[in-house]
Amino acid sequence: MLETKANLIRRHVIKMTFAAQSGHPGGSLSYADIFAALYFKIMNHRPKDPQWEDRDRLVLSKGHAAPAYYAALAESGYFPVEDLHTLRKLGSYLQGHPCRQKTPGVEISTGSLGQGLSVANGMALAAKLDRKLGRIYCLCGDGEMEEGQNWEAAMLAAHYKLDNVTAFIDRNMMQIDGPTEKVMSLEPLADKWRAFGWNVLEINGHDMRQILEACDKASQNKGKPTMIIAHTVKGKGVSFMEGAVAFHGKAPNQDEYRIALKELGEEP
Amino acid sequence: MKWVYTSQRKEYANALTELGRTRTEVVVLDADLSSSTRTNEFAKKFPERFFNCGIAEQNMMGTAAGLATSGKVVFASTFAVFATGRCWDQIRQSIAYPNLNVKIVATHAGITVGGDGASHQALEDIGLMRSLPNMTVIVPADGIEAYKAVKACVDHPGPCYVRLGRADVPMLTTMDSEFAIGKATVLREGSDVTLVGCGQMVAVCMDAAEELEKRGIHAEVVNMSTVKPLDEVTLLRSAKKTGAVVTAEEHTTVSGLGSAVAVVLGEYCPVPLKLIGTPDCFGESGESEELMRRYGLTSERVALAAEEVMRRKKQ
To answer: Where in chain B is the domain with CATH 3.40.50.920?
Structure first.
């Protein structure tokens, strides 16, 4: 069950950020369902052979969702689940933000926002040159859309008809300083991507059926890259983290940790 | 000396098109300056492996990184000022940190850009690039070295920055001359003072050495074609022999070749040292030759600096 996998990712996110006493639970929890759908259903990949050349590739442009990413990679078999608790610790291969050089399954280092889509485009161009069928998935944040480089990348992907790119925006409406529309208006976001020549889909990013359908539509679509705007709730699954800007980059304390795991169906 | 002047950009195009024929993994990106950087030569011959990214350099660097993760050797070209300054974070995060095979070959570096003025004169690019871990920084002395550097960096793993000029530069080396990434060459042996140059300032050092010889001073000239990793062995051997060093670069002395040399000499062989380069200021419009004189990038100034460090050596 993909919903079970998503729940597992959420529990890992809570445990990892609690153990590290830092990290970004909010934006990791909002992406948990999409990570589960991609790693356990949609993506064609071989965790025991991470360099398999026909694989689908994933770029986590919003690198601070690393806890959810690592949980999905570990549960897929890229590295031992037991190592997840080393997140952000000295000497760990699980850095605060994804590092290609250290972590199996991580395709590109990210963390400085707005750069992932460009890298995904490069992977997509290479796949076209090499006549490979692997798709490129790029997970972006909504606040990240304020970075101008995204719109440069939007142009290039449409210009070169990179229909092997499926990108997501985690539209949780929050960024560090508050609601996105208050910090810097992003709307009309879907219209902007359409105007840049993209195939745009809007879904509930916590509804597994909608996620799967959208990915399917994206891969059927020819001649245009696809942007899936996933409407999500920051901190989804943990009542006191939902919609709470405070948990963008703050770890749960002991009490919060207990309550969070309990809400996610696990006795700590 | 009477020099023959040739174009580094033309040699870049030659090397690139030769690589295009033999190396199918070579892909070239440009940002709307392909007629100036001369990557258009590659584009004509191998259109399927050339991607114009438009005037969007940051996206070009990220795209280069993505191609490199899939086994391509990617050349990304634009003017040096945009390649290194505008895209520094993209190079840091998406290329240098993951240690990817992206070769940033930038043209129009230095003050000799000329009429375009300060906005287009990269005088900080060597410093920006050499401060990045994993980055190799190559400053070819002439057209032939530009050709060799481009050919060599394909097989040099990881990111490289190759710095080329706009204006034609003196032809200093031959196809038979030694060139290797990370290896300096001694172009002229001497015992009194070491002149260390990069780029077209190596030719200026050769002119200065000739002038010094007339005054009875035997100058050694070192072509430091790779600024990072710096060939410390060759540098220290020469500095120990002569006991006085002058560096010369078409770049600010705040962060370029001179600074790199100063760190090594300061730690391992403190000898009198003088840095010739542009001072801590922006450039301006003018003819290349005029600008070289105005900013003190001349053989006369290098020779004076040589005499100064020799005086300090005796004190």
So the answer is: 185-310
Q: What is the pLDDT of residue A267?
A: 82
Mean pLDDT of chain A: 97
Which pTM value belongs to this model? 0.97
Instruction: Kindly list the distances between the CA atom of residue B282 and the CA atoms of A43, B164, B257, in Å, as whole numbers in the listed order.
Output: 51, 19, 18
Q: In which band, very low, low, confident or very high, does the pLDDT at B315 lie, cut at 50, 70 and 90?
A: confident
| Interface residue of A103, A119, A155 to substitute, partner B, most B CBs within 10 Å | A119
The chain A residue lying nearest B89, using CA atoms, is A112
Identify the band that residue B1 occupies on the pLDDT scale cut at 50, 70 and 90: confident
Contact at CB, B61 and A118, closer than 8 angstroms: yes
- Burial (CB < 10 A; 0-12, 13-18, 19+), residue A4, is exposed
Distance from CA of A70 to the nearest CA of B (A): 18
Is B66 in Cβ contact with A118 (below 8 Å)?
A: yes
pLDDT given at position A268 = 73
As annotated, the residues of chain B forming the CATH 3.40.50.970 domain(s) are 5-170
The domain over range B5-170 is classified in CATH as 3.40.50.970: yes
CATH of segment(s) B185-310: 3.40.50.920
The beta strands (E) that lie in chain B are given as 5-6, 26-30, 50-52, 73-79, 102-107, 136-138, 160-163, 169-170, 185-188, 193-197, 219-223, 226-228, 245-252, 273-278
Question: pLDDT above 70 covers what percent of chain B?
Answer: 100
